[in-house]
Amino acid sequence: MITIIQRVLEAIVVVDGQTVGTIGPGLVALAAVVKGDGDRDINWMAAKLVGLRILRSQDGQKHFDRDVKEIGGSVLLVSNFTVSAATRQGRRPSLVRAAEPGVAEAMFAKFVAAVRAQGVPVETGKFAADMKVTLTNDGPATFILDSSAP
């Protein structure tokens, strides 16, 4: 599983003109399920996402001091298969690493449940929808998490 996370002051996701998810301070996570991902990847990613100390200290002096639970923040999880794209060769991204839609949808639902089980409020987009995500990146602070990375 590959996830791009951004520290945000606020974020919103809209589908067909309707707001389907909105958060205040916390994290936006654009997540791709890749072929071969299993429960171990989901659980690792959920724990890493919630426990990663990438939010500012209470006095604002330290950029990477607290995790999302410590600030009472939320997570906006957005399924995004393009995060898995291979772009090294050619001009068109290759999406062969992305899990099949049925598998990816089930695994993404498990991911949402695993993050919620960590005790963090979670909002989501809509799987396979054309989503409009608006956010105020804080920093900016953006990180890539990969459950298969050494």
Describe the overall structure.
By secondary structure, the protein is of the alpha/beta class. It has 2 helices and 6 strands; from the N terminus they run βββαβαββ. Strands 1, 2, 3, 4, 5 and 6 form a 6-stranded mixed sheet that branches. Strand 3 (26-32), helix 1 and strand 4 (74-79) form a beta-alpha-beta unit. Helix 1 (39-51) packs across helix 2 (101-117). The longest helix is centred in the last third of the chain and has 17 residues, at 101-117. It is globular. The model has no long low-confidence stretch (mean pLDDT 97).
Strand and helix map with partners:
Layout: E1 2-15, E2 18-23, E3 26-32, H1 39-51, E4 74-79, H2 101-117, E5 122-124, E6 131-146
Parallel strand pairs: 3-4, 4-5
Antiparallel strand pairs: 1-2, 1-3, 1-6
Q: What's the β-strand tally?
A: 6
- What would you call the shape? globular
How far is the N terminus from the C terminus? 13 Å
Into which percentage range does the β-strand content fall? 25-35%
Largest sheet, if any?
A: 6 strands, mixed
Q: Which stretches are poorly predicted, pLDDT < 50 over at least 5 residues?
A: none
Number of helices: 2
Which structural class do you get from the secondary structure elements? Answer: alpha/beta
Mean model confidence by pLDDT: 97
